[in-house]
Structures are given as C-alpha cells and as structure tokens.
Amino acid sequence: MTTRVTKQKKQHKQGMLDNVMRQFDNAADIIGLNPNIRKILEVTNNELVVHFPVRMDNGEVEVFTGYRVQHNNALGPYKGGLRYHPTVDIDAARALAMWMTWKTSLAGLPYGGAKGGIQLDPTKYSNSELERITRRFTYALGDNIGPELDIPAPDVNTNAQTMAWILDTYMSTKSPAERSTNMHVVTGKPIGAGGSEGRDRATGYGVFLTIKFWTESKKVDLKDKKFIVQGFGNVGYWAAHFLEKEGAVLIAVQDAYGSITNESGISVEKLFEFSQANKGSILGFSDSHAIDNTDFFGLDCDIIIPAALGNQITAENAQHIKAYLIAEGANGPTDVEAEEILLKKGIDIIPDILCNSGGVIGSYYEWLQNRNGEIWQLEEVMEKLEKKLRESFSKVSEISEDRKVDMRTAAFIIAIERLEKTYVQRGIFP
Ligand SMILES: NC(=O)C1=CN([C@@H]2O[C@H](COP(=O)(O)OP(=O)(O)OC[C@H]3O[C@@H](n4cnc5c(N)ncnc54)[C@H](O)[C@@H]3O)[C@@H](O)[C@H]2O)C=CC1
Ligand SMILES: O=C(O)CCC(=O)C(=O)O
Fold it and tell me: Does the keyword field hold S-adenosyl-L-methionine (predicted)?
C-alpha cells in the first residue's frame, strides 16, 4: 500500500517543518535567491508513505506506517537517515529531509537530501520483531531507494544492525551480479558487512571537532570546561567521549527516561557501560543524582550539546540557559524563537547542519569505499573527516563575519548558494 506524491506543496505548521522553512526563508531573503529556484527548494521532490503488515511474536499481524521523503537531488543522490520513533510523521520526515539537503550542500558532498523512518516505539518490540519490521519496510520501499538513487543511514533508534538488515533485504531482490556491486545502498553498516571504520563515531567526533574549532577561534581552552548532553545515544555518547579526552567535564545528562547530574563530573565511559547494561537508560547511575527534566538546560555549565530530538530548546527554557555555547548534535533541537533569545543573550549556536555533518561525511566515505572497492583504515577516515569539517567550519565563520550574520544563517547561505549555482549553471533558471 503506497502513496506517492510528487512536488508536495509547502505547508506551514508549528514544529520542525515550520522551523526549517523559516531558517530557509531567512537566508533566501538575505541572498535574494532567484524566485524560481526558491520555488523548487521550498517543496520536496517525492514523498513516499507505505503501510505494511508484519507478524508479531504472538502471531498477530500489526500494520506499520513508514515514510521516505526525498527533498532535492540537484547535487547528487538523495541521502539521509531512517528514524524509528512515535513522532515520525510526514511533516517530521519533510523537515528532516530538507535539513539533509542543506547539510550535504554545505559539506560540499555530491548528495541531495532525504529522510524517513517508521512511526513506532521500538522499546515495545522484540529484536526479531524489529528485524521483520525493517525487512518488510525495505520491501515496501522497493526501488525507491538504491545506491545511486537514495541511500539511507542510521538515525534515532536505528543502528548498524538495522542497516545490515536493510542491505540484506535489498540484495535479496537483486540479481547475483547486482548483489556484489550494491553494497552502498545504505551506509552506517557493520564493518563486517561493508561498513566503514569510523562511521560509528563520525557524528559525535564531528560535534566535538566543531566545538574544538569554535573554542580555538575564541582562544578558549576546553580543559575543565563543563558540558551537558541531552541524549546519550550514538551522537551524545561519542561527542562526550571525545570532549572528556580533551579534558572537558561532563556534569549532566538527559535521556528519554530522565536527567542526572554530578557537579564534580560524570565518567563518560562508566555511564556508557551502565546505560548499555540498563536497556539504554542512564537513570539509576550511582555516581550522580536525578534532577527534574525542566531544570536540565538551565544548569550552570559552559557548553550544551542537544543530541536527541527536535524542538527541545524553546522560548520557555532558552531564558534560563547559562552556557555560552550550544553545539547542535541533534537535527533541529533549537526552535526559531529560542534562537532569537539565545543570540540576544550573546550565546553562540553551532548549527546542526554544520555541527552534526560529520555523520553524513563519514557515510560518504563509506559509500565511496563500497563504490570503488576500497577499504580505508580508521586513521585515514578520521583525518579526512577532520580536514573536511575544518573547511566547512572556516567557510561558515568567514561568511558569518563578512555578512555579520549568525552561524546558522551563514551555513544556510553557503548551502543555498551552492544549489543556486548548480541550477543556474545547468541553464534551467539563468
Ligand atoms: N546517528 C547519526 O549518525 C546522526 C544523528 N543525528 C541526530 O542526532 C540525534 C540523536 O541521534 P542518535 O544519537 O543517532 O540517536 P540514538 O537513538 O542513538 O540516541 C538517542 C538518544 O536520545 C534520547 N532521547 C530520546 N528521546 C528523548 C527525549 N524526549 N528527551 C531526552 N532524550 C531523549 C534517547 O534516550 C537516546 O539516549 C538525532 O536528532 C539525529 O537526527 C544527526 C546526524 C547524524
Ligand atoms: O549518514 C547519513 O547519510 C545521514 C545521517 C543523518 O541522518 C543526518 O545527518 O541527520
């Protein structure tokens, strides 16, 4: 059961979609974006909604709804993650797909933007149910994904195992010759199944690097700086891991289950071990005490890393923020109203499309290796990632200074101008 809609009209609604559209409009106004190109970029190219049945462990059948939104592919194949979460719906997928287009453009990658997922709470399903759900979703997506068309990757509640199931299912629909040459249909795979060294940590490492570049540019030493992290999954954990190695101190964490703090410091590795043994939850970690979720963002710290869901920093809690830097590991964690308040307070925000772009850059390296039959060592991947992120960070800083705009606006300007150039050069809208 498939609904395919082409060129969905722009919809303004509260939430992530509203935020990404306002961020886009702001930058498009500043550069005076060609109105025809604006019309193209403010809508999504394709939207796929699939309803598919899966047999549960108890023998009953449940019908799930999955999404894949392909926003734009002017610069290359669609690229972006798959999310398994109750909040996944068509607007969330649209917003996240648009952010992917700006992110890949800013990073200078030969990709467009897409995003998708399934509306479900994965904690309610067994591992074998999740495998069957993923495989049926992959069949339902069919040839709407592909190594040169649309390449999914991990996002919230999906991981290397999920990508391996997708790869295996996709391959089973192909001829023997195609099976050996289509490994790059997904990225973020386990290393034994065509994954790349370093993709697991690439997003968190990128978050850490952008913080490091920012502190270097402000002549601030990261040692002993206090940071807090919302979301202790792939992105939150790895960002905290690298910051701790640099001498910064983790003093509070919030996840889907609650918030904990210890002003003298929380060991990142001990908390990680604890959460792994505690079904992914940080609650109950001995070397800390629980605090109310509403007090989290107002804690006395230097750096905040939102690394969970969208719309977490709002006009309500932005007033209480004491940190001087927000590094957006998550996509869309700060809404437009909150950003205005934070900027007025002199708080800098490293925007998501720059801050968490290490993930898709790492995915690009995996895709390239699969495509070219190469295998790179971890050191090589990390070096390339650092070089690419440093270039992106420098460009954003330069535009931010030259045009006297905040870092998000600068990042959007770079991303949109690259897309504008490609349309103009192709002669579609001179
Ligand atoms: N995995 C990746 O490579 C990339 C992820 N991102 C973004 O980073 C964010 C986190 O993604 P992952 O770490 O991959 O997901 P994950 O599934 O590994 O971890 C998510 C974390 O967020 C927590 N969380 C969920 N709901 C929450 C809530 N309401 N309040 C507080 N915490 C909550 C979970 O408990 C978990 O600790 C997402 O916004 C994702 O789009 C961005 C770029 C790449
Ligand atoms: O690695 C990728 O292809 C995309 C990861 C992602 O979903 C994101 O950057 O938000």
Answer: no
